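User: Could you write out the 3D structure of this protein bound to nickel (II) ion? I've included everything you need below.
Assistant: Certainly. Input first, then the structure.
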Amino acid sequence: MALREVRVAGDPILTKLCRPLKEMTERMSVLIDDMFETMYDQEGVGLAAPQVGVLRRLFVIDVPDEDEDGNEIDEKHPIVFINPEILETRGEKTLAEGCLSIPNKVANVTRPEWVKIKAYDRDMQEFVMEADDMLARTILHEYDHLEGHIYSEMAEGPMWDIEDVEEDGDTGKVRLKTAKGPGRKSNRKKHRRRRL
Ligand code: NI
């Protein structure tokens, strides 16, 4: 396995439509392994093939579970999506999002809060998955990459530097940090990985 270079916004490859995979090849299998390695290395929760310069309809995710206090549970559940097709979406939710292709930035984005998706796994077996919350958001964000879209196109308000913002523990949105008085208690959740 090897780390791949992650393309950053401004690279025209991130604006192109990706083509479907006809079959699993050794080359694609290596690509999937490399994408997971690259995603974990950069502490992301999702990575799409065009982000490593490959215009194929393929993305990988591993969204951590959280315990009751909102801390990430250190347990891997990698999922590969090949030739994904969004079957249905429901609801709407605004949450903080980031992207490995826009380093150190974050913004609020509104997306459906539930998704039903069909895709193929790395054995090219079809599966259907229903997802909500951060898992749904990650799936929809990565799917957009395959269509040549990046989340900054739909960001609400400015793209903020990650050091300048704080997350609202109740809503999951980000806002600019306010000056905190000494001793003021914070009820914010632990900073979550949200680089997609
Ligand atoms: Ni992304």
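The longest strand covers residues 79-90.
User: Perfect, thank you.
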